[in-house]
Design goal:
With 347 residues, the protein is of the alpha/beta class. 39% of the residues lie in helices and 17% in strands. The strands form two sheets. The protein has a seven-stranded mixed β-sheet, sandwiched between helices. Strands 7-8-6-9 form a four-stranded parallel β-sheet, sandwiched between helices. The structure holds 6-O-phosphono-beta-D-fructofuranose.
Amino acid sequence: MGKITMGQRIGILTAGGDCPGINAAIRGVGKTAIVKYGMKLVGISDGFTGMINKEYRDLTESDLSGILTLGGTILGTSREKPFKSSGKGKNEISKPVLIKEHYEQMGLDCLVCIGGNGTLKTAYLLSQEGLNVVGIPKTIDNDVWGTDVTFGFDSAVNIATEAIDRLHSTANSHKRIMIIELMGHNAGWIALYSGIAGGGDVILIPEIQYNENKIAEYLMHRVEDNKPYSIVVVAEGIKNPIKDSCSAAQSLSKRINELTGLETRETVLGYLQRGGTPSPMDRVLATRYGAAAADMIAQRDFGKMVALKDNKIESVPLSEVSGKLKLVEPNNRLVIQAQNMGTNFGT
Ligand code: F6P
């Protein structure tokens, strides 16, 4: 294999929202490609923007040292969607055409795209245009179809859980209802996992429609039951009870106060969930994904995404992943178990 792969040029880019573990994945791809296969690594700047503007740099093995634990992405990222924006790039040439031209001019044999749903869709469309593409799923939201888990998710759940843990003591001291809003886009994975890990009393996710009167009733029962404080964990994607209001947590806080008379406070955790060093589990997962992607390139297994299924690394065709979302099923085992223990999902 070494002889066949020697000198092949592997482009790598990171696109969409950043998350902890991206650098570990870049390192996993790069070190395996360079050390095991004698390939060369080319880092593309700022996601697909770098392919459109031909902004790249060669990366040596030593460039990959010391990045395992770094948050963010050493390559930079952007939300550029070359197939969506009808706008033309330089010289009025369409962006996908520019990307193809630059891929050739950079002498690439393959392009590794590390990203979430939007990135993997673009990766699929580029593979349809004839580029050799391999996808690596990353996002704190854990909503990529075709894989059990994305890296970034575990770190985000750790951060969110610590935040919920910290809310318990202040909620208890003041006998308040604490509402915490977590990221996740249209999926409730972060809220579900950290809500369970942090002992949330109410967990609201976009996949399960809630009724605010049921939440109010539940919280009042807790008060009658000698539990004068409660933690309400809310995914950012739930329906906002007050139209055009800033955040779901803020409006829910207002509504719960109106319905129960209980004192409420809200916290929107925001980008803290995405920043900083990856958890050990994310470092391992990102490294496994990266190494597997390099192996796929060596085997010329293109047009696919690395995935984890039952703790085994597999590959899934990008055509199957593209355009789909992995959401929490309302009958998810964790949801049922939490309900059986008295956790309220707003129903
Ligand atoms: O996809 C990751 C994510 O952090 C979502 O949870 C959130 O909805 C979105 O990105 C925020 O996007 P932006 O970085 O564009 O503000």
